Amino acid sequence: MKTSNTSTAICLSAAAFFSTSLAAAAPAPAGAPLERALELELALARRPELYLVVDTGRRTVEVKVRGVVLASITAEDAAVLHYRRSGGEPAAPGAILPAVLTVTESGLDERRRVVVARELRPYPDGTDGADAEPPDTAAPAAPAAADAPPPARYRAALDGGWELWVGQGRPGPGPLARLAQAVGDGWSRWRGEAPEPRTVVGLALAADDARRLHHLVRPGIRLLVR
Amino acid sequence: MNAGRPPAERRRTARLGGAGAAALGICLLLALALSGGRFEQVPAAAGGGVEESARARALRRQIERQTPGGTYAVVDTYANRLRVYRHGSLLREAVCSTGSGFVLRDTQGERQWVFDTPLGERRVERKTRDPIWVKPDWAFVEEGVTPPADARERMDDVSLGDYGIYLGDGYLIHGTLFQSLLGKKITHGCIRLGDEDLEYLYRNLPVGGSVLLY
After folding, report:
1. Do B39 and A80 form a contact (C-beta atoms < 8 A)?
2. Which one of A127, B66, B141, B199 counts the least CB within 10 Å of its CB?
3. Distance CA A190, CA A198 (A)
4. A93-114 burial code (b ≥16 CB/10 A, e <16)
5. In chain A, which residues have their Cβ closer than 8 Å to the Cβ of B30?
6. d(CA A175, CA B193)
7. Phi, psi (5° rounding) for residue A40?
8. Does B200 reach chain A within 8 Å, measured CB to CB?
């Protein structure tokens, strides 16, 4: 009985705790999001770097440079998911999208095969370098890269507290991840800590398309999400 | 306290205690989850079906003006394909080889090389027939040999094939002695082509022309 009373008290306290609100941004004027998206893309197209355009409305991911579409992937589903604390205001239309984000961390480097040269022999005197084994002799070792195909499910950290989740099925975090986020955030709220901004770009892609995209999701690559 | 109770009663008390603790834990998790929040889908920024403004059309034209004119090459480093376009029309498609993605680590010199083909746009800086490769340090380290001090020991006039198309920072499009390995990710970052495709590219892609790599 005592246990039940304690639980009820916690639940009631939680229910009374919905007070923090997110600052709502000013609504964007009609038609502005498309123009803003194009302005952002123009800035990207003026540079020689590769960029990805994620269109959640059309469910497409385009690989582009200089405005040229190099590859286009149709997603099974695509969504931008913004984490909102209970009692907080929903984000105003146009306050989050469009956005340009940079990949800050991906698992690409951790999956690389590392060859370590531990001891080097002295270069043989009087030997012509051109007559030595050609550099392509490293090639036979390389096909081992095919032993580990790129993953079909992966995540990458983007700047500004954003994340990219690529997988199959429902885009973005699954039920357990969502529960964990809510519990973790609830705990930090009880401790009086400020919320950490979290927005997820979720892409549900066919496994082959996810693998194809994987090698492009590397630190420094920019995403235009609209 | 429990010492005088019968064992059955002690077990029942323990079960009730366990169930109560579990209920408390679930309640606590629910309370935390409820006081936390949830993910909400953000509507797409630029939906279709709306007539574009003059400003939007002007922006699209500006983006189109960034695209390379004339003849340019596109390299798909995932599928290991090189395509040649002129004014957006496909002229030729070739099998190529691109960077292995391997890391070579020299523990003595504490140096490291990543064999990636660069991504994005590169411009053809120059083109040569019968290119000579000045082997960089990694080519020796990879073979387990200390790089020679004499620059003449680094000259290789065989490995690059008949033509070299220089893209800057030591990256080239060149030929290969190992044509059977075309189509694989095996290079140190350069793009290797078969003899006929290399000659075609050498003759058709001008100096200053774009190479778009993804």
Report:
1. no
2. A127
3. 18
4. bbbbbbbbbebeebebeeebbe
5. 11, 14
6. 48
7. -65, -40
8. no
Distance of CA B128 to the CA centre of its chain: 27
Task: Give the span between the Cα atoms of A103 and A164, in whole angstroms.
Answer: 9
Q: What pLDDT shows up at residue B35?
A: 63
Read off the pLDDT of residues A87-122 as tens digits, 9 standing for 90 and up. Answer: 777 776 678 899 999 999 998 888 899 999 888 889
What is the pTM (predicted TM-score) of this model? 0.80
Does the CB of B141 have a partner CB in chain A at under 8 Å? yes
- For residue B47, give the amino acid letter: G
ipTM of predicted assembly, 2 dp: 0.84
Cβ contact, residue pair B53, A4, below 8 Å: no
Q: Report the residue of chain B nearest A8, measured CA to CA.
A: B27
Can you say how many angstroms the Cα of residue A201 is from the centroid of all Cα atoms in its chain? 6
Cis bond upstream, residue A98 (ω within 30): yes
E strand or H helix that includes residue A5: helix A2-15
Q: Which residue has the tokens 């540079």?
A: A47
A78 class by beta-carbon count within 10 Å (0-12 exposed, 13-18 middle, 19+ buried): buried
- The mean predicted confidence, pLDDT, of chain B is 91
Distance, CA of A12 to CA of A220 (rounded, Å): 46
**Interatomic CA distance for residues B145 and A121, integer angstroms:** 5
Candidates A92, A130, A58; CA nearest to B133 is: A130
Candidates A80, A91, A94; CA nearest to A33 is A94
Torsion of CA A221, B60, A166, A199, to 10 degrees: 80
Q: Which residues in chain B have Cβ-Cβ distances shorter than 8 Å to A61?
A: none
Tokens representing A92?
A: 């105003």
What's the burial of A173, exposed, middle or buried (CB within 10 Å: 0-12/13-18/19+)?
Answer: buried
Strands A60-65 and A51-55 turn out to be: antiparallel
pLDDT digits (tens, 9 = 90+) for B68-86: 999 999 999 999 999 999 9
B190–chain A nearest CA distance, Å: 11
| Structural contact between residues B127 and B165, judged by C-beta atoms closer than 8 angstroms | yes
What DSSP string runs through A15-66?
Answer: HTTTT--PPPPPPPPTTHHHHHHHHHHHHHHTSSS-EEEEETTTTEEEEEET
d(CA B10, CA B3): 9
**Residues B43 and B35 sit within 8 Å (Cβ to Cβ):** no
